[in-house]
Amino acid sequence: MSAGGAGIGRDAGGAGVALEVAVTSPAGAVVARDAGADRVELCSGLELGGLTPSQALVEMTHETGIPAHALVRCRPGGFVLDATEVELTEREVRTVLRSGAAGVVVGALRPDRTLDEDALRRFVEAARSVSAHAEVTLHRAVDHAADPVAAAARLADLGFTRVLTSGGAASAVAGAGTIARMVAAAGPVQVMAGAGVTPADVPALVATGVAAVHLSAKRPAGDGHAGVPMGAGDRGDGHFVTDGAVVAAARAALGG
């Protein structure tokens, strides 16, 4: 798979609802691939909501053969970016695509919680400067927007391929009504439901008309510690790995 691999995945071709799994490692990508995922969203720091993966991580995940869309988020926290962060995001967009990502996942808001359209256009242009076919997804910054439905309606003009959303709610199931309205508003832009999704939630999310369902399918790796904390966010719980059984159950819920 190369950076020009747009169109790969069930939603891109209109043949059913696609399954996307968030992963943080090449091993996770292999588990997701073998359990039936159509693509992965690749990030580091999943416990922080996801951060930009390293160049080597993108390269090794590319070698697994499953289309990987790299999250490009330079820091945790809110989605209002300063000028330096916008430039850094542009550079990271180009780097991950040149490293083999099939697409990128980006987002930015203004202080008034509307889309930062200037920044988003720059991110889309950066992606398409590497590959005219690069897929660009707006991440869950949309769920922090003042009006997620109005935001979804702007994405086609900004050049986006899809949007990942919980409908502005704590979970995609709770936001299903808003997700359905986003589907109606988004036009050609694919809407992908994600946040707190379990295989049991899949039928209700498919009923909203989404093109894809996104879940992390994670389980603890069992490497927790009771030692000295390694940072403010380290509670000693260890890290997470991809659970193939959860991915397979979600694939089955989508009809295999």
From TrEMBL:
The keyword Cytoplasm is annotated on this UniProt entry: yes
InterPro entries listed in its UniProt record: CutC-like (IPR005627), CutC-like_dom_sf (IPR036822)
Record key words, sorted: Cytoplasm
Membrane-spanning parts: none
Protein localization: Cytoplasm
Pfam families in the record: CutC (PF03932)
Signal peptide: none
Family recorded in the similarity comment: Belongs to the CutC family.
Name assigned to this protein: PF03932 family protein CutC
